[in-house]
Amino acid sequence: MERSKFILDEKDMPVRWYNVLPDLPEPLPPELHPGTKEPTILPPPLFPAAINEQEFSPERYIEIPEEVQAIYRTWRPTVLHRAHRLEKALDTPAKIFYKYEGTSQAGSHKPNSAIAQAYYNKQEGVKRLATETGAGQWGSALALGCALFGLECKVYMVKVSYNQKPYRRIMMETWGAHVVPSPSQDTETGRRILSEDPNSTGSLGIAISEALEDAFSHDDTKYSIGSVANHVLLHQTIIGEETRKQMEMADAYPDIIVGCVGGGSNFAGQFLPWIRDKFSGEKPDMRIICVEPQACPTLTKGLYTWDFGDTAGMAPILKMHTLGHTFIPPPVHAGGLRYHGMAPIICHLYKLGLIEAKAEHQVAVFEAGVKFARTEGIITGPEPCHNLRVAIDEALKCKEAGESKTILIAHSGHGHFDLAAYDDYLSGRLKDYEYPAEKVKEALTHLPEVPSA
Ligand SMILES: *Cc1c(COP(=O)(O)O)cnc(C)c1O
User: Fold this and answer.
1) Element spanning 50, H or E
2) 390 contacts 293 by C-beta, under 8 angstroms
3) Which of 44, 181, 311, 426 has the fewest CB atoms within 10 Å, i.e. is most exposed?
């Protein structure tokens, strides 16, 4: 009998995160202070000291604290699946595996970092965390982390999602978070934007600015970020560290790894523990494919330059692919992929030619999601449906070429709160958005001037 699940025992869960920084073939460009625009390893007092240290750590492995491990073990290790039924439906000789992060309490990979961040803040006496959320996935993960460590949690939720997607707001409130629609009356940034445009529906960049201002203006409060930053990618490497053990159980090694990228955290968490084998020259041909929406094609169409992570220009300036920090992407259903920038680590590896990128349209993406649901059973979030599209296309190429490649899918979460998007697809109402070239061109005129770079 061919096995379909590879399950690690709780006691075999990896107890260290993998930090790629010391292994990079070329060092990562520095982060710049938003005020002085000079390189800094001490950004404004946004994060607790332990997190700041991790952001720039030279250590290859970082121990996962016991209390974080204990909470990880409430849902980890997650299962690695072999997609036999999908393979059969595609009639492909390819072997398809997927590592599924949808079994966490919040339904995605995001608690891997939220739990760790809540823990380090608690350790350092912080009472309250402020953050932003788009469709609500990060906000719900942090609300969960704060509930488990007894912290207050304030979430600035992009107004259009707050009004249209109440279920994640209710999850956050159930875990005890205080959620307001952004732009809000609670910050100067929010009040300014509302006075200029009382009907503003908000954006992720605006919500980040509000959360940052909240953290700066309260002594007991720090800021927490759900993606992009080095330390968030670090926390997510538990995914790839587990998968390596499980692929060994399956006696398999990936030729192709695919994942979706919004800010880049879940996919980096899967592929960083593998890319070591490319650095060492052991697996030079392994392909690592980042998938993004055509409507927000940061890697494939963005500029690789210095930009702010937020709209108000309070966050550190990062060297990254960007569509401009004032760019507001079209409302595709994959809310988690609607961000103007990308993790500097991913951009750096892309520039070095070690990873690839592809952009997909949402109708084709949901078609893949429905095929996956009807074969493997899981209803996939709109974000990881992007990688299902590319995985299926690669498996079909294997069929044409008569090649049996091993494809590993980084599956970041379920789509139980995205059924309206499936409804749009199934009823033929879903449409594709063209790449908004003019809006990106305009947004790219607002990049910060960085004299030293
Ligand atoms: C937030 C989210 C993403 C995108 O964020 P990354 O940091 O790129 O991982 C992808 N998938 C799911 C399910 C998400 O919730």
Assistant:
1) helix 49-55
2) no
3) 426
Atom of ligand 1 nearest to the CA of 110: 15
Beta carbons within 8 Å of 11's beta carbon, 6+ residues apart: none
For residue 427, the tally of other CB atoms under 10 A from its CB is: 8
Does the beta carbon of 336 lie inside 6 Å of ligand 1?
A: yes
Confidence of residue 43 (pLDDT cuts 50, 70, 90): low
Query: Is the pLDDT at 40 greater than 60, yes or no?
Result: yes
Are 302 and 313 contained in the same domain?
yes
Please indicate, yes or no, if residue 70 is contained in any of the structural domains.
Answer: no
CA 250 to chain centre: 27
217 CA from centroid of ligand 1 (Å): 29
Q: Whose CA is nearest to atom 3 of ligand 1?
A: 336
The alpha carbon of 8 is separated from its chain's Cα centroid by a whole number of angstroms, namely: 24
Beta strand pairing call for 31-32 and 39-40:
antiparallel
pTM higher than 0.90: yes
How confident is the model at residue 452, as a pLDDT? 59
> What's the pLDDT band for 183 if we cut at 50, 70, 90?
very high
Question: Across the beta sheet with 178-182, what order do the strands follow?
Answer: 178-182, 152-158, 128-133, 221-223
Q: Is residue 57 located within the same domain as residue 126?
A: yes
Decide which of 230, 257, 286 is a domain's last residue: 230
Q: What is the pLDDT of residues 235-260, one digit of tens each?
A: 999 999 999 999 999 999 999 999 99
CB distance 143 to 175 below 8 Å? yes
% of the chain with per-residue pLDDT over 90: 87
What is the spatial distance between Cα 54 and Cα 41, in angstroms, rounded to a whole number? Answer: 11
Q: Is residue 432 domain-resident? A: yes
- The domain spanning residue 377 has which CATH number? 3.40.50.1100
DSSP H helical segments within 228-356, as ranges?
230-236, 238-249, 265-279, 298-301, 344-351
pLDDT in tens, 392-403: 999 999 999 999
Q: How long a stretch of residues is the chain?
A: 453
Whose CA is closest to atom 14 on ligand 1? 336
Nearest alpha carbon to residue 316 among 44, 34, 36, 40: 34
